[in-house]
User: Which sequence fits this backbone?
């Protein structure tokens, strides 16, 4: 009887811990879902798309500028 009682108490404590963890996880899930639906998250997504687009555009202009500098250097060498 004593061993069963001890095991019961152990399982009861484990159950309470699991129950408390489930409640905490439910609260965290609710917080995460509210953040996900928040307008700021959507704004951050839009801003990231714009950043990616600007990065591509910047890289294109930098490459074109480097090519033009090479051409200027070439033509300067031809003139002198």
Assistant:
């Amino acid at each position: 009887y004593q061993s069963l009682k001890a095991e019961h108490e152990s399982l009861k404590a484990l159950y309470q811990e699991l129950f408390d963890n489930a409640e905490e996880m439910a609260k965290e899930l609710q917080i995460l879902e509210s953040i996900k639906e928040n307008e700021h998250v959507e704004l951050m997504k839009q801003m990231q798309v714009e950043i990616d687009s600007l990065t591509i555009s910047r890289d294109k202009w930098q490459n074109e500028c480097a090519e033009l500098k090479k051409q200027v250097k070439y033509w300067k060498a031809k003139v002198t």
The chain has a mean pLDDT of 91. The CA atoms of residues 70 and 76 lie 10 Å apart.
